[in-house]
Amino acid sequence: MIVVFKPDATPDQINQILTKAEQLGLKTNVSEGVERTIVGLIGPEEVLQVTPLEVFEGVERVIPVLAPYRLVSREYQADNSIVSLSDDVKIGGEQLHVMAGPCSIESLDGMDRIARQAREGGATILRGGAFKPRTSPYDFQGMGEEGLKILKDVGEKYGMATVTEVMDARDIDLICRYADMLQIGARNMQNFTLLKEVGKAKKPVLLKRGISATIKEWLMCAEYILANGNFNVVFCERGIRTYETATRNTLDINAVGVVKQLSHLPIIVDPSHATGRWGLVAPAARAAVAAGCDGLMIEVHDNPKEAFSDGGQSLVPEKFSALMQELRPIAQAVNRKL
Amino acid sequence: MIVVFKPDATPDQINQILTKAEQLGLKTNVSEGVERTIVGLIGPEEVLQVTPLEVFEGVERVIPVLAPYRLVSREYQADNSIVSLSDDVKIGGEQLHVMAGPCSIESLDGMDRIARQAREGGATILRGGAFKPRTSPYDFQGMGEEGLKILKDVGEKYGMATVTEVMDARDIDLICRYADMLQIGARNMQNFTLLKEVGKAKKPVLLKRGISATIKEWLMCAEYILANGNFNVVFCERGIRTYETATRNTLDINAVGVVKQLSHLPIIVDPSHATGRWGLVAPAARAAVAAGCDGLMIEVHDNPKEAFSDGGQSLVPEKFSALMQELRPIAQAVNRKL
Amino acid sequence: MIVVFKPDATPDQINQILTKAEQLGLKTNVSEGVERTIVGLIGPEEVLQVTPLEVFEGVERVIPVLAPYRLVSREYQADNSIVSLSDDVKIGGEQLHVMAGPCSIESLDGMDRIARQAREGGATILRGGAFKPRTSPYDFQGMGEEGLKILKDVGEKYGMATVTEVMDARDIDLICRYADMLQIGARNMQNFTLLKEVGKAKKPVLLKRGISATIKEWLMCAEYILANGNFNVVFCERGIRTYETATRNTLDINAVGVVKQLSHLPIIVDPSHATGRWGLVAPAARAAVAAGCDGLMIEVHDNPKEAFSDGGQSLVPEKFSALMQELRPIAQAVNRKL
Amino acid sequence: MIVVFKPDATPDQINQILTKAEQLGLKTNVSEGVERTIVGLIGPEEVLQVTPLEVFEGVERVIPVLAPYRLVSREYQADNSIVSLSDDVKIGGEQLHVMAGPCSIESLDGMDRIARQAREGGATILRGGAFKPRTSPYDFQGMGEEGLKILKDVGEKYGMATVTEVMDARDIDLICRYADMLQIGARNMQNFTLLKEVGKAKKPVLLKRGISATIKEWLMCAEYILANGNFNVVFCERGIRTYETATRNTLDINAVGVVKQLSHLPIIVDPSHATGRWGLVAPAARAAVAAGCDGLMIEVHDNPKEAFSDGGQSLVPEKFSALMQELRPIAQAVNRKL
């Protein structure tokens, strides 16, 4: 932590900070510049996070030096983490994994048809929502447990691992009985109650980036999960909110590289939400693989015109399979398999 | 709902939409322009929200005409709503109400000292967090029920109504026993599970704007609460996330005027979070009152240097009282009382 | 300037920075922390701005300590600057000044009618564009010199100072012959060629904030003008671009307080562009005065239905006069005159 | 253009719009819904762009239907445009082209060394700034004409086409004598004076996206150039400003797909500015090629520690060559050559 003083700070004001630091068990380093005095505080920064040094008289600015997260960082673990959903599906290694399926689970028949075709196209993980976070209280809210059963049955039938969203801490046990991976949606990224509880669960967690979350905040939310004991976390970049309205969200492709530098945890990309339009899913998916992601999450529906939600961003199975064909040589070009 | 077709859309493609509309019980109006055909769909737009017309062949764009919310709108209720917290505290009328108190409830003594001074300054509602949404798992997480008791006791002692944040649906009953108003924090604005449950509660709700929520999304979240039976909702503008880093958030002062035009529900402003720096709270609070808000929420702490959270944006009681003095003639200038 | 090293930085890598600093004539202060070494560089930071220390091996991050601007800062000049447009119109003192008029100058008659009514309402500065920055090449581009003559004649007739936009360095001399103040529009805020040239002009400059400019970048653009010899600069906050679409722009009301803290130069607010809708101009204008701005710029047109540009955000003269009545008690409440 | 009326609009108010439309030579289509009346205006929308229909009484909202640009659109020209810089360098076809070189031209020797290595790596276009838009008036402002000579001489020596930024309309003739392509920088994207003048020049134009420009605004700026007679325009996505601070800008990779859908003009990507950190240039460049761009612009410097500007985002020649090797199989995977 570095404390920058105002040009007119008095020695007493500077001493007040030095005394405070001493009380907190920190060492200090005073540097007197031409215009300003700067004090470095040496030691664990956690003790300072609840001490608002910027309210002390004479202080102009406080600059944190250390990242606020630990367990998720490359410094804590240099090697890439591998997150296992099943014997066959391990995210973070050479093999890329693609999660495919409808936005909402709508029926057994529909799920079966879509899963079969997604599997044939090369998807290894089946996705589908049983509890849906809908912006309107009047929209379809999901099939609940019945949907979870469909997800599990269809996943087993086609040899796919499964992932589905958890929105309420009270549903975690239920969902853990049916799915291989718990998804935390973008709107719940900072639902700290939920983060703590999935941190205690025994299933891997897919942590979507909040719609306006910084990468640092996103890493901190993963830290919540790891700090509660669950190290099996996969990040999912799904587009951020910007001023641009030509697409539903702006895919922050830079996030792939940044997360890979800062953390040992895997990161996948969701080009469906990151564009919001099926016609833009393919270039976004290709870009994601080329940038070095560990997998993709893609919405697939065989009848988007009748889909209960997000039909406009779903690929039909034929287009999904064609996209998978396009992705393979790109994966190879970056030394990955698909 | 208006459907704009591509210049090369065929009659068959246009008929496909007309047929779909008929199935949904909607009337249509076809307008053939020089370059494009446009079809207006007449009837309740809800039935279209789950029908992704943009995936039909030949369709270029779909434009919704009606707002997606009903109960919160000025069209549903032309007159301003008044939300009662107690016999004395009614938000939305001529009288402005100020919520003041520390970010976190830290101790009975501290709360008592702060409340007394805030009350003397003119605050009528006591605020304080017992369950805290902290970005770091290593930060202070709140006093829980013990904090709620302190809030209630101190509020009663000084004749103030009380408000505190609810983060978990499982805590609603508990909090309702102690506080007069339930606060939904910015990070939970789209926690639809929580919205539904406070919609069933018998206490007024303070709905903070999500950090990157559009005004339309915010109104939709209030709709969730009203649709579940609770019409006592007050909006709270607390700053939005933008590219500007000189302040913690950007106070969207325009939101006050926009919400007043679109909705009958009251709106207050939180200048503490909207600036993030105590030195900027006063101009932001003055601006909010001048813009026409129904109240303010301000962080007050008598020893910000030792505050457990958000000390940097808290006013000391003397500055709070001075600010209240500044606000009174402005309130009067816009025909309000304070 | 503070240099933070990576945890595994070698002594050689640290020495490389120390040597570089010495070459540049800077003193250094080394602080060895538990996890990282930090080096403070003491002396003028300008020499470092062209030296990318972050590319040196072992360096993790470089943190500037001093603001990059000098002449515009409160440290350079503690007292508020007063910018004179004429004997009667001095911006930055107790008296607030309001610039009013149409977006574009359209005709002598029209300008005369609008100016007369704006003057009666209390405006002291007449605005109007003769050269227009239009987003479409097919839109009206302004009357040019003929418009400037109208501006000057009408301004003199009603005893108002005048302001108009300069878009091209080649027009500066021409505009200086007719107008009292040169406006740099938002789109040209970082047109450094133009900034240098108005820095050499003898007229005051109104520097609008770029649509996505940080406050720091905005201050740096003013620095360009002052560094070229022209200290008569007034800032104009006119809304920034955010994700919110309910308004044309988001009025960053916090900017008033921040600029007042950092700089001695005056700041006014343009509620017309900051909202984009005439129905929202009044609350935004009231908020701006309450926040402590030094004046306003408001679009006024007596027949917005036929206006050549921006009719939707223009007030009719009656509404302008009514707004000025509303603003007077607010100005008084913050110890200003209007 | 579609006009949506308020629920309580009177027949007179609706007739006022119908009459106005008739005066403007437009046909109308009236659709009476359950809650609102909607009127479609049929004919060229240009005549409406200067008529603010939203200020008419009873009007709630005005929705444009047609895109405001024509010449740049796919509807105007279905086939991809090819922009020729020289006999060998044609942007927009199967062959991708990479522009490489230092941010600023610093000396003949330096430019020669960098160009030789960039050419060996596979770059076909040499970049370098002679006039620099620097945010600080105290920074290096470029070598001017001397720099242009160096650019031309070195480009010819190594058989590379050349591109350099033009900041002032008065410099266009000069730059046209030395360079093969005129670059409009992000800060000048909406400098309409400059756009008109390069529209009259005989050289191809590289139009960088403004730092907060929507894709629609960007296309409109190209329209300015085409409307003035110059159809040789190439877009350059260089990152946009968002709230994220981990990178200098956010690369809007979706923009590649969107521009390809809407326009026939080529688009390249600048991963150096879009990330701001050399360590992130490679994944961003790979993503851009995979997304389908027509080329790249990359900053290369053989001694970034001593670069006059933007050293932190420059690749050293070895890393540039390695990146080019990585890009070739990706280009092949998307049916392009590099």
Question: What report would you give on this structure?
Answer:
The structure is a homotetramer of 338-residue chains. The first copy, chain A, is 34% helix and 17% strand. Chain A has 338 residues and is of the alpha/beta class. The first copy, chain A, folds into two domains: 2-63, Alpha-Beta Plaits (2-Layer Sandwich); 83-333, Aldolase class I (TIM Barrel). In chain A, the strands form three sheets. In chain A, strands 13-12-11-10-9-8-7-14 form an eight-stranded parallel beta sheet. The first copy, chain A, has a four-stranded antiparallel beta sheet with strand order 2-3-1-4, with helices on one face. In chain A, helix 7 links the parallel strand 11 and strand 12 (233-237). Chain A is elongated and about 75 Å long.
Please summarize what this structure is:
The structure is a homotetramer of 338-residue chains. Chain A has helices at residues 11-23, 46-49, 108-121, 145-158, 172-178, 192-200, 215-227, 254-262, 271-275, 281-291, 317-333; strands at 2-5, 27-32, 37-42, 59-63, 83-84, 90-91, 97-101, 125-127, 161-165, 181-184, 205-208, 233-237, 267-269, 295-299.
Strand arrangement, major sheet of chain A: 13-12-11-10-9-8-7-14
Structural class by SSE content of chain A? alpha/beta
Q: How many individual domains of chain A?
A: 2
CATH superfamily of the largest domain in chain A: Aldolase class I
Helix content percent band of chain A: 25-40%
CATH class of the largest domain in chain A: Alpha Beta
- Supply Rg of chain A: 23 Å
What does the oligomeric state look like here?
A: homotetramer
* Mean pLDDT over the full residue set of chain A: 93
State the major sheet of chain A. Answer: 8 strands, parallel
Percentage of residues in strands of chain A: 15-25%
The counted number of beta strands of chain A is 14
Count of DSSP-assigned helices of chain A: 11
| Global shape of chain A | elongated
Please report the two chains with the greatest interface, counting residues with C-beta closer than 8 angstroms to the partner's C-beta.
A-B, 50 and 50 residues
The CATH topology of the largest domain in chain A, please? TIM Barrel
CATH architectural type of the largest domain in chain A: Alpha-Beta Barrel
Give the SSE string of chain A. Answer: EHEEHEEEEHEHEHEHEHEHEHHEH
Low-confidence spans of chain A: none
Distance between the termini of chain A: 44 Å
